[in-house]
């Protein structure tokens, strides 16, 4: 769910080096990076049997294989390292260059869990296609008979395991008595060397060391859910101003598409600003696994692969079914004016009329404090189902199309 940007970044360290020293170090850093950026760097360690890497280059990971890696984007206070699991489904040898490179990332917000299952199930289903015979745990099919795979998919099922640990959407930083940072507002991040705080460096590690500062990725989808406490359908944010984004959104066969200018610092908008078509897919409520919405999103990923010609033996043009997709340009939020207990009459995807009473707020005695009404005619996107509310909280979001007269 769209949230107001949270800027609780810790104070950044002040550079105290002399300019000449700093320049020399930067030059050295650039030289070192220049000699190592075009290869996957293995640290030599393993975790749960899988290699730990500090940098990914999809062109040198095993072809015809689904590989698993760990990458540590940061260490918490006291030196506790965080580890991100990374799938890389690499197709035929030549397709690292000739095929599309797709990033599927999930759960940058730690309470958004449908996306975790989506990425896990996408790679399980890829494994079952028999198109990755190099995968020792996969079915041993002949690559040619299975048609091979044309391209590469990078999957990040849990981008914020610390958020999962804390049962929290945001990322906790210990410095200065502690801050919570919305990681989806700090991309592409800032390294520690460049003066970033820990959350900035964490984002920079994903951006640079997994996605190669876009060199590993042509198309990207970032999976989210609503904030905990709300119900919603399968929908997406899409910035139609960049070529390719509308196609990504339509292939989702979503319940709603929000044509949207994006959010600075979000993963989606960082991709779009870098010229990489990307959307934010919102998969129902937070903190649960909804099988129907998970399966619809996994199916979307395979439609997208088909559309990107990643299955070497397929050439069919995908025609998305948009008959149930409600496409909007604006949201209208109905918020409560009082803290208390909210009762909402409308359900997800219900059509409402401007002025329609859609709920009410009670005090602790059960006396009605106010009626809640729709400010516009449109379709309900999400409904708060946690009845305990504080003043100012949005309880219903209505999608609608703004006209010239609005
Ligand atoms: Zn989110």
Automatic annotation (TrEMBL):
<keyword id="KW-0479">Metal-binding</keyword>
<dbReference type="InterPro" id="IPR053138">
    <property type="entry name" value="N-alpha-Ac-DABA_deacetylase"/>
</dbReference>
<dbReference type="InterPro" id="IPR055438">
    <property type="entry name" value="AstE_AspA_cat"/>
</dbReference>
<keyword id="KW-0378">Hydrolase</keyword>
<feature type="domain" description="Succinylglutamate desuccinylase/Aspartoacylase catalytic">
    <location>
        <begin position="145"/>
        <end position="305"/>
    </location>
</feature>
<keyword id="KW-0732">Signal</keyword>
<feature type="signal peptide">
    <location>
        <begin position="1"/>
        <end position="38"/>
    </location>
</feature>
<dbReference type="GO" id="GO:0046872">
    <property type="term" value="F:metal ion binding"/>
</dbReference>
<dbReference type="GO" id="GO:0016788">
    <property type="term" value="F:hydrolase activity, acting on ester bonds"/>
</dbReference>
<protein>
    <recommendedName>
        <fullName>Succinylglutamate desuccinylase/Aspartoacylase catalytic domain-containing protein</fullName>
    </recommendedName>
</protein>
<dbReference type="Pfam" id="PF24827">
    <property type="entry name" value="AstE_AspA_cat"/>
</dbReference>
<keyword id="KW-0862">Zinc</keyword>
């Amino acid at each position: 769910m769209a949230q107001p940007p949270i800027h609780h970044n810790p104070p950044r360290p002040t550079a105290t080096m002399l300019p000449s020293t700093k320049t020399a170090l930067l030059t050295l850093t650039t030289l070192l990076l220049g000699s190592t950026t075009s290869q996957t760097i293995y640290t030599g360690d393993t975790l749960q049997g899988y290699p730990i890497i500090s940098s990914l280059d999809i062109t040198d990971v095993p072809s015809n294989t689904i590989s698993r890696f760990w990458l540590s984007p940061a260490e918490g206070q006291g030196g506790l390292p965080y580890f991100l699991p990374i799938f890389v489904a690499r197709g035929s040898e030549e397709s690292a260059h000739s095929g599309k490179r797709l990033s599927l990332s999930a759960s940058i917000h730690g309470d958004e869990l449908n996306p975790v299952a989506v990425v896990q199930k996408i790679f399980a289903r890829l494994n079952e296609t028999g198109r990755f015979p190099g995968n020792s745990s996969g079915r041993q099919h002949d690559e040619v008979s299975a048609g091979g795979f044309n391209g590469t998919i990078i999957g990040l099922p849990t981008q914020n395991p610390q958020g999962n640990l804390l049962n929290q959407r945001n990322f906790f930083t210990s410095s200065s008595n502690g801050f919570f940072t919305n990681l989806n507002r700090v991309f592409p991040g800032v390294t520690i060397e460049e003066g970033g705080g820990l959350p900035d460096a964490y984002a920079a590690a994903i951006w640079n060391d997994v996605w190669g500062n876009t060199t590993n990725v042509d198309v990207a989808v970032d999976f989210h859910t609503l904030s905990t406490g709300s119900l919603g359908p399968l929908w997406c944010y899409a910035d139609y101003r960049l070529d390719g984004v509308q196609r990504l959104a339509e292939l989702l066969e979503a319940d709603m598409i929000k044509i949207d200018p994006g959010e600075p610092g979000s993963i989606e908008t960082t991709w779009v600003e870098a010229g990489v078509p990307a959307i934010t897919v919102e998969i129902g409520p937070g903190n649960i696994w909804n099988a129907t919405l998970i399966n619809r999103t996994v199916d979307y990923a395979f439609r997208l692969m088909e559309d990107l010609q990643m299955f070497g033996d397929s050439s069919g043009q995908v025609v998305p079914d948009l008959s149930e997709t409600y496409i909007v340009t604006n949201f209208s939020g109905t918020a409560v004016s009082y803290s208390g207990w909210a009762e909402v009459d409308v359900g997800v995807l219900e059509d409402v009329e401007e002025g329609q009473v859609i709920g009410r707020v009670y005090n602790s005695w059960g006396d009605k404090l106010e009626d809640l009404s729709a400010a516009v005619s449109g379709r309900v996107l999400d409904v708060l189902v946690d009845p305990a509310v504080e003043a100012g909280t949005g309880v219903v979001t209505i999608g609608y199309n703004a006209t010239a007269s609005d």
